[in-house]
Amino acid sequence: MPRTALVTGAGSGIGQTCAELLQSQGYEVIGVDLHGADIDADLRDPASIKAMVDAVEQHHTSIDALVANAGVSTSSPLDLEVNYYGAIDSITALLPLLQRSASPRVAITASAASLQRTDAELVDTLLHGTREEALDYGAKLQQAGKAAGYGNYSASKRAVVTWMRQVAITEAFAGHGIAINAVAPGVVKTPMTEQLLATKEGAEMAFGAMPAPLNGAAEPSAIAAVLAFLVSEANASMTGQVLYVDGGFDCSTPQGRGADIWHDPKHLDA
């Protein structure tokens, strides 16, 4: 029987490309997005997530792969709602279906922004506080201006990969054979970045903040290929890992962590 994969944010960009790639590899793919996918769902809304799971369960007793890809970049609390809460809530809701698979896999689309300067207090609030506290904090950052507001995005990505590493070795995941990993793209050519990369000034700003010495901005297919591997049966032993598919940003100094991530990690929190 073919493996079944559910891809969130499947309507465009990396999610659409990943869904098409998995389909070409023989998967039965269930696409989820706000509008126009196999299942329409708003991942900010727990009731909508429940309805998504109910819709999947009408035709499937299990799923083999979950690509938690849906994401936004708005420098507002919406980033927290979709990139963090939407990801972990949908993964958690689909966990029973994954646990019934013989070879279950989860891959999250994070971001190289998880390495950028961010607000450590917001990250901690996401991981340990209430949703209301985190969204209130994020709203204050947005009100403080564009630079501070960007902390919503970078914190959402830092927090979701931290959560992923925390749960990877638990009974709910490792104990049921579920490998969970993340891909962290750098600058990618998607509808989200199209306008930014269309001008010389925009491209200089993008690569000034996130250099990509290897081939510049990535095509969505480059990210989709890594996501497809992570949710495949070929990924038999890797879990809790963040793969920076970023054209070399992570290796950069001073923007990334540089060459030595063992003895002299950079302190990136503001």
Automatic annotation (TrEMBL):
Protein name: 3-alpha-hydroxysteroid dehydrogenase/carbonyl reductase
Primary enzyme class: oxidoreductase
Presence of keyword Transit peptide: no
EC assignment: 1.1.1.50
PANTHER family according to UniProt: EG:BACR7A4.14 PROTEIN-RELATED, ZGC:101858
Sequence similarity: Belongs to the short-chain dehydrogenases/reductases (SDR) family.
A GO molecular-function descriptor: 3-alpha-hydroxysteroid 3-dehydrogenase [NAD(P)+] activity
Gene field: hsdA
Superkingdom of the source species: Bacteria
Keyword line: Oxidoreductase
Keyword Ribosomal protein (UniProt): no
